[in-house]
Specification:
The structure is a single chain. By secondary structure, this protein is of the alpha/beta class. It is 38% helix and 22% strand. It contains 11 helices and 13 strands. The chain has a 9-stranded mixed sheet, with helices on both faces. Helix 6 links the parallel strand 9 and strand 10. Helix 2 crosses helix 9. The chain is globular, with a radius of gyration of 18 Å. It starts with a helix and ends with a helix.
Length: 320
């Protein structure tokens, strides 16, 4: 565990994966089919994690690709506005497109229509990875969707290998989205390879079951903590999470809030957890900070716009 504390205190992160544009039906509570107006924000798991880290005072950069058009430039500009580094975000010409999600701010029956045909983030290459200096980083954070297609899959695996050799931690967010993969078996096999090389693995109960071949995901999480990873977090939705290391495990609940939407919780959790570890908090305190960040995000409008800064997070924790 000393390696975990030593590297995390560097406070520098690169997040590998997608960022896209979200269009929220406005005003909040409006269904897509009834909306006359929409509000834009950036979304996508890697983008949201990077924003959460930056908002909580960490140095965070995104490693990804965007389409070389108005939507791609919008996303790149918004990342920079939130303080996320874009030096390793490449604009891609041609027929690829930045992901677009048309969604709602509704706690129940929330609809999302996602457009990811020819997704630009899957164009990430080994050359993009080779341009990154991993030595100064606390961690490389890899979101599992980046493994779903080539050449992004090879690039992500190369990034994991280069980060490990540079001494940086590897954080793997399983982030399973069935629509991105050719098959469930391919997703399970590929993500398990990445998870076995990670120092920190975070996923929900369904994702760990996927990696376990639809058997006992909880047993797999415990096994990873004993044999390969320094820290494993097994999320259980409204039931909270279970955290495992090689020496101990514990259960953490969620912060009850009046949620405005169900999206963005996992990304906020990851950002708050890693920022907490980087600030030197104990593992249980960092988990609570991740849970608090998730609660704040779902109780706000949008994902990146609702992500709390350090002062907002401290106020929330003091009040709950």
């Amino acid at each position: 565990m000393q390696r975990l504390w030593h590297r995390m205190r560097l406070g520098r992160f690169v997040v590998l994966g997608r960022v896209g544009m979200d269009l929220y039906a406005d005003p909040p509570g409006t269904r897509i089919e009834d909306a006359a107006h929409y509000v834009s924000a950036i979304g996508g798991s890697a983008g949201n994690i990077a924003v959460a880290l930056a908002r909580q005072g960490m140095e965070a950069g995104l490693l990804s690709c965007l389409s070389d058009d108005a939507v791609g430039r919008y996303c790149r500009g918004e990342l920079a506005r939130y303080g996320v580094g874009t030096a390793h975000v490449r604009l891609v010409a041609g027929g690829v497109r930045t992901s677009l999600a048309v969604t709602e701010t509704r706690a129940k029956g929330c609809q999302t229509v996602l457009y990811r045909n020819g997704a630009a983030d899957f164009d990430l290459t080994e050359a993009d990875v080779a341009a990154v200096d991993f030595a100064p980083l606390a961690a490389l954070v890899v979101t599992g969707t980046a493994l779903a297609a080539e050449p992004s899959r090879r690039a992500a695996m190369m990034a994991i290998d280069r980060a490990r050799h540079a001494g940086a931690l590897v954080v793997f967010d399983i982030d399973y989205r069935a629509y991105s993969w050719a098959s469930r078996n391919q997703a399970a096999e590929t993500c398990l390879i990445a998870a076995d090389q990670a120092d920190v693995v975070v996923g929900n109960d369904e994702e760990f079951a996927l990696l376990a071949g639809d058997t006992d995901g909880l047993a797999l999480a415990r096994h990873m903590a004993r044999e390969t990873a320094l820290l494993v977090v097994y999320k259980q939705g409204a039931a909270g999470s279970m955290t495992f290391t090689g020496d101990f495990g514990f259960t953490t609940g969620i912060y009850p809030v009046a949620a405005q939407k169900p999206t963005g919780a996992g990304d906020g959790f990851m950002g708050g957890l890693l920022a907490g570890l980087a600030r030197g908090h104990t593992i249980d305190a960092a988990i609570r900070r991740g849970s608090a960040t998730a609660a704040i995000v779902v109780s706000g409008i949008g994902c990146a716009p609702a992500s709390p800064d350090e002062a907002m997070l401290e106020t929330f924790l003091a009040q709950h």
